[in-house]
Amino acid sequence: MIHSAVLVRPPRCDSDDNIQAVYTEERALEGSIRIRCHHFLFVTLRCTDIRRLYDVFATVKHLACVGFLEQLYAFDYRPDTANDAKAVEYDAHAEFRRMGVGVAGSVGQHWRVSEINREFQLCATYPPVLAVPARISDTTLTYAARYRSKARLPVLSYLHSNGASMTRSSQPMVGLKQARSVQDEKLVEAIVATSEPTGMVPRFRNERNNIIIDARPTTNAVVNRAIGAGSENMDHYRQCRKVYLGIDNIHVMRDALNCLADAAVDAAD
Questions:
Q1: Are 110 and 134 in contact (CB under 8 A)?
Q2: What is the mean pLDDT of residues 25-38?
Q3: Which of 89, 101, 235, 245 is the most buried (most CB within 10 A)?
Q4: What separation in angstroms does the CA of 144 have from each of 2, 9, 151, 159?
Q5: pLDDT level of residue 115 (50, 70, 90 thresholds)
Q6: Confidence of residue 186 (pLDDT cuts 50, 70, 90)
Q7: Looking at residues 92-105, what average pLDDT do you find?
Q8: Residues 128 and 155: beta-carbon distance below 8 Å
Q9: Which burial class, exposed, middle or buried, applies to 227 when counting CB atoms under 10 A from its CB (0-12, 13-18, 19+)?
């Protein structure tokens, strides 16, 4: 997918003497179109014919800047799965089974697969198939989702062979009044318990070996309380401790990424 395209016109010189004095390579007299893709692929199209260069740029612009969603390439792409041996269709159920989710006697026996988000009614940005603790009902998931921004409740991302898991979620809707959700707390507690042989956290264990990672700087998490969000109150999450990574918001990270890409292009030139 194209991120940006820049038209670089060929240099204008008044005489052949100036051309010979300034430009030593024939390619220096060419114009170019510099295309940057979202996956860091850089393509440079060079052409000495300025009219053809403008025509190509207009075509790239027309194809890249679509008028409506259905014009995107993803809607026209039809893979030839019959002849392409490398084509593999992702199967969420098979992937969860591979990790042992819901398999008796395995490290994932305390997890289950839920299809509560089959029609994306619970969370529009989560897949239709979710892996959650086995002792948490879909009803509890519904209430827990209301406590998370955009309903992105804690769900399984990866399950290691030793029983340790990685789950993801959005920020909780704590707000200035320090709101809490019993369902969300039970969900997190159940996630912690999945690594225990019995599927339950010992009542009198005081160690906080489980980590809740907040990627934001601490200041950003505190400020977000003013808009009804915030970060977990660790008094309500047993056997967990919180770590802030200090990563700035998406706008700062996007600007940093653009600067990195521009530096890479300048170094290549």
A1: yes
A2: 73
A3: 101
A4: 38, 56, 8, 21
A5: very high
A6: very high
A7: 94
A8: no
A9: exposed
Extract the tokens encoding 119. 């029609």
Greatest C-alpha distance within the chain: 88
Interval 239-254 mean pLDDT: 91
According to the model, what pLDDT value does residue 208 have?
63
Q: What is the DSSP string of 172-224?
A: B--TTTT---HHHHHHHHHHHHTTSTTSS--TT-----EEEEE-S-HHHHHHG
Residue 121 one-letter amino acid: Q
Asked if the model's pLDDT at residue 117 lies above 70, the reply is yes
Beta bridge partners of 209: none
Residue 21 binned pLDDT confidence (cut-offs 50, 70, 90): very low
Residue for token digits 């994932």?
108
DSSP string, 4-42: EEEEEPPPP-SSHHHHHHH--SGGGG-EEEEEEETTS-E
Contacts 24+ apart (CB under 8 A), 54-61: 54/7, 57/5, 57/7, 57/33, 60/2, 60/5, 60/33, 60/35, 61/5
Q: Is 269 helix (H, G, I), strand (E, B) or coil?
A: coil
3-state class (DSSP) for residue 43 = strand
